[in-house]
Design brief:
Largest sheet: 2 strands, antiparallel
Number of helices: 22
Distance between the termini: 60 Å
Number of domains: 1
Strand order of the largest sheet: 1-2
Oligomer: single chain
Number of strands: 2
Shape: globular
C-alpha cells in the first residue's frame, strides 16, 4: 500500500499527463492510417524519450501502444481498411454498420469496448504483476536463463508462415547481439577493427532500420490513395447506444476481456489472436449469430474489447520476467533498459515506486484514450486521407533525426540504413523481422545468464535441473514449443487444402 500511494503521488505530475496524452494522440493517428503501424510509431519516437524520466517516457510509449489498438478500428469501420492487423475482426461488422449509416455508433461502440478492456487489463496488471514479481524473486541465475530461453520460444510463435524462416531470422538477431565486447571477458567479437562497433549496435538504431525505414522502403512503390470518408454523416448521426444494446453487449465484453487478458499473458500470441478468438466465441454464444458479418454490435465489442485487454496483460511477463509478449512490447523492453530498469525478478524490489506509477498510469492512459476518441473522431477520420507522398518524407526525416540523435554520429545513420536494407530483403524473401528483434533484445540477457550459471556449476549442465522451478520451466518450454509447432503444422495443412481447393 505504501508503494501504491507513493507511486500514485509520483504519477500526479503535469509532464506525465502531458506526454501520456501526446502518446495517445500519436498512437491513434498511426493506428488509424493504413500502412503505418504502432511498432513504427514507437520506434520513430523512441529516441525522443532519452531526455525524459522513466515514468514520463513509459507513459508516452504506453499511450502510443494502447491508443494504437483502438486507432486501427477507425479506418476499419470507415473505409474497410484495417489500420492494424487485429482490427480486421472489427472490420467484419464495423464496415457494414458504417454502410447502413451508423458510422458514429460503430465508432462509439469500438471506443467504449476498447476502453473497457484496457482499464480492466490495467487493473489486472496492477494486482497480479507484484505477485508474479514476488515469485520471480525466488529464481537464481539458472532459472533466469530458462526464463530467457522460454522467451526465445516466442520466435517460433511470431515466425510467420514458415517456422524455418523464423528460426533463421531469430538466429540472425542473436548473432548481431554478440557483436562488440564479450560481457564476461571483455574480448572483442566481430568488430573487424572498427572502433564504432566496440559497444555493439545500439538497439534504437537497429529498430529504426528494421521497422521504420524498412516500412518506408516497402511502401515506396505503392501509389494507391485512400479516399476520405464522408464526414457529413458523422456530424449528423447521434451515435447513441440504447440501454437494450448495452445489455446485449455486456456479456461478450466481459468474456472477451477475460480472453484478452489470458492471451496477453501468454508470450508470442498477441492482439490478433485475442480479437479473432473472442469474435468466434461471441458468435457462438450470441442469440443472433446471423448478424455477425452484417453489422453486429456484439462482433465489434468482442474484437475491440479483446485486443485492448491484451495491452496490460502483456506487461505482466515483461515487467516480472523480462519476456516480451509481442513486437511492440519487445521495443518497450528496450526502453526500460535504456532508462536503467532491467525487467526481471528484482525490478519491483529496486524500482517498486516507479513500477506502481507506471501501472496506475496505464489506467489513466485508457481514460484519456476514451476522451480523445470521443471528441477528436472527426480529426482522425480526416487524418486517414493524408497522401502517402506527404507522409513518407516526414517519416524519413524523423528516422534520420532519431538515428543521429542517439550518439550524434553519422555512423549510426549508416547502420540504420544497412538494417533497413537487410529488413527489406528479408521481407521480400518472406522472412519476418520480429524474430530478429527478439534475438537482439533477449540474446545478451540469455548469454550472460547461461555463461554465469555454467561458471557457478564449474561447467556442469546439471545446474539447470537442480531446482523445482528449473524443472517446471523446462517442462513449460517443451510444452510451449509443442503447441507452437503443432499450430504451425495445422496452419500449413489448412493452407495446402485451400490451395488444392
Amino acid at each position: 500500500m505504501e508503494l501504491f500511494i507513493e507511486g500514485f503521488s509520483q504519477l500526479l505530475n503535469f509532464q506525465n499527463f502531458l506526454f501520456m496524452n501526446i502518446g495517445v494522440l500519436l498512437g491513434m493517428i498511426f493506428g488509424a492510417i493504413p500502412g503505418l503501424t504502432v511498432i513504427l510509431c514507437i520506434v520513430l519516437f523512441l529516441p525522443f524519450t532519452y531526455s525524459l524520466g522513466p515514468i514520463q517516457s513509459f507513459m508516452f510509449l504506453l499511450g502510443i501502444y494502447c491508443a494504437g489498438g483502438y486507432g486501427g478500428s477507425i479506418s476499419a469501420i470507415l473505409i474497410r481498411t484495417p489500420g492494424t492487423p487485429h482490427a480486421t475482426a472489427t472490420m467484419l461488422d464495423g464496415y457494414p454498420m458504417s454502410r447502413r449509416g451508423e458510422s458514429k455508433k460503430a465508432l462509439n461502440i469500438a471506443l467504449q469496448a476498447s476502453t473497457f478492456g484496457g482499464i480492466l487489463s490495467a487493473i489486472t496488471l496492477l494486482f497480479f504483476a507484484p505477485q508474479v514479481g514476488k515469485f520471480a524473486q525466488q529464481m537464481g541465475t539458472p532459472e533466469y536463463f530458462l526464463v530467457c530461453a522460454f522467451g526465445l520460444t516466442i520466435i517460433a510463435g511470431v515466425s510467420g508462415k514458415s517456422l524455418v524462416h523464423g528460426l533463421i531470422s531469430g538466429a540472425l538477431g542473436l548473432f548481431i547481439a554478440t557483436i562488440g565486447l564479450d560481457p564476461m571477458t571483455s574480448n572483442t567479437r566481430f568488430i573487424f577493427n572498427n572502433i564504432n562497433l566496440y559497444s555493439g549496435f545500439d538497439l534504437v538504431i537497429c529498430l529504426i532500420g528494421l521497422f521504420a525505414l524498412s516500412e518506408v522502403l516497402g511502401k515506396s512503390k505503392r501509389s494507391e490513395q485512400l479516399h476520405a470518408p464522408s464526414l457529413a454523416s458523422l456530424r449528423s448521426e447521434s451515435g447513441r447506444i440504447s440501454k437494450a444494446e448495452y445489455k446485449r453487449i455486456a456479456r461478450p465484453a466481459i468474456i472477451s476481456t477475460i480472453i484478452g487478458v489470458i492471451v496477453g499473458i501468454i508470450p508470442g500470441t498477441g492482439a490478433s489472436m485475442a480479437s479473432f478468438v473472442s469474435y468466434d466465441r461471441a458468435k457462438q454464444m450470441s442469440k443472433k449469430p446471423e448478424e455477425f458479418g452484417n453489422g453486429s454490435i456484439e462482433g465489434i465489442v468482442a474484437a475491440e474489447t479483446a485486443n485492448n485487454a491484451v495491452t496490460g496483460a502483456t506487461l505482466i511477463p515483461l515487467l516480472t520476467l523480462g519476456i516480451p509478449g509481442d513486437g511492440a512490447v519487445a521495443i518497450m523492453l528496450g526502453a526500460l533498459m535504456i532508462n536503467g530498469l532491467t525487467p526481471g525478478p528484482k525490478l519491483f524490489v529496486d524500482h517498486g515506486v516507479t513500477m506502481y506509477a507506471i501501472m496506475i498510469g496505464l489506467i489513466f492512459v485508457n481514460g484519456f484514450m476514451y476522451l480523445q476518441g470521443r471528441y477528436l473522431t472527426r480529426l482522425f477520420a480526416k487524418v486517414i486521407a493524408i497522401p502517402t507522398s506527404i507522409l513518407t518524407p516526414i517519416i524519413v526525416i524523423f528516422c534520420f533525426a532519431g538515428a543521429f540523435s542517439v550518439k550524434n554520429s553519422m555512423f549510426d545513420v549508416s547502420v540504420a540504413l544497412v538494417f533497413a536494407a537487410v529488413a527489406y530483403i528479408l521481407t521480400k524473401l518472406n522472412f519476418s523481422t520480429i524474430p530478429v528483434l527478439l534475438g537482439l533484445v533477449l540474446g545478451p540477457i540469455t548469454e550472460e545468464n547461461f555463461r554465469r550459471a555454467l561458471i557457478l556449476s564449474d561447467g556442469s549442465w546439471g545446474i539447470f535441473i537442480d531446482s523445482p522451478i528449473s524443472i517446471g520451466l523446462l517442462i513449460l518450454i517443451v510444452f510451449a514449443l509443442a503447441i507452437i509447432i503443432r499450430g504451425k503444422i495445422n496452419e500449413n495443412k489448412q493452407g495446402l487444402s485451400h490451395a488444392q481447393a
